[in-house]
Amino acid sequence: MLQNEGKLEVGGTFKVLDENDQEQELKVLGYLSVDDTEYVAVSFIEDIQEDSEDEIGIFFFRVENDNDFVMMESEEEFESVTAAYIKLEKNNFTKQRKR
Questions:
Q1: Taking the CB of the first residue and of the last residue of the chain, which one, N or C, has fewer CB atoms within 10 A?
Q2: Runs of H (alpha helix) within 15-62
Q3: What is the enclosing helix (H) or strand (E) of 94?
Q4: pTM of the model
């Protein structure tokens, strides 16, 4: 669980320790709600800043009571949130193209 002081805004950053105890900075890409549960989409700052045509890795955390980020508990939950995020991104892309 990652504890936050207040809700992080979209574009905000926070740091975590990776599996090698190295500090990594993550950026909040957005929030979404799936089945009355709030989730946050994040990505590593390093991946976002790289000049590459590769897709960036996006991770999701469930947002709990005091804005704590909690890992998802099941593959089904991950798949449901991923599908909702992809749908949201497609809708945003379609709206941008219509402008």
A1: C
A2: 45-49
A3: helix 75-98
A4: 0.77
